[in-house]
Specification:
By secondary structure, the protein is α+β, with helices and mostly antiparallel strands. The chain has two helices and nine strands. The strands form two sheets. The protein has a five-stranded antiparallel sheet, with helices on one face.
Length: 159
């Protein structure tokens, strides 16, 4: 059995008896000759009900941006304005993050942003609001606190 399956089952058994669990993100670790890639993936819906894949990656691979947030909308329903930054808001703070170097080569319904500098600063006590600059509108996607905690754990996974 994979180590991450054991981790998820253990979390469900321990925490499930104390408090109801939120949906768990899919978490994976891939070891390659060039290094290690940690990844957390979750499916969330925006205010209009559109589904988004939210993929957080922490790479210790040569040539990759260390920490990225990839947002994947449904093809044809979402088209990113790739030159625009991603706005991240909380009740107290806001950040703008810019595309990773690979973003211009991605499909129009995919945005990828370099979040290396801000992950440690993100609060885990309240939701984040991601303001996605799309061709037709600005869409807001809420990121729950448990997911931000997962992202911070991913960046510390090999420590």
């Amino acid at each position: 059995m994979c180590w991450w399956v054991v981790r998820v089952v253990s979390l469900v058994l321990v925490w499930g008896t104390i408090a109801p669990l939120p949906a768990l993100a899919i978490y994976s670790r891939v070891e390659e000759p060039q290094g290690i890639l940690f990844r957390s993936q979750e499916s969330l819906r925006d205010r209009s009900g559109q589904s988004w894949q939210v993929v957080f990656r922490y790479a210790k691979l040569e040539g990759m941006t260390p920490v990225t947030l990839r947002l994947v909308g449904f093809p044809g329903a979402a088209e990113f304005l790739h030159q625009e930054p991603l706005q991240i808001d909380t009740d107290r703070d806001e950040w703008q993050v810019f595309e990773s170097p690979v973003a211009p080569r991605l499909s129009p319904h995919v945005g990828e942003y370099d979040v290396t500098a801000i992950v440690p600063q993100l609060p885990t006590t309240s939701s984040l609001k991601l303001r996605l600059s799309l061709s037709k509108e600005v869409q807001v996607l809420r990121i729950p606190p448990f997911l931000v905690e997962e992202w911070q754990r991913v960046t510390q996974a090999d420590a």
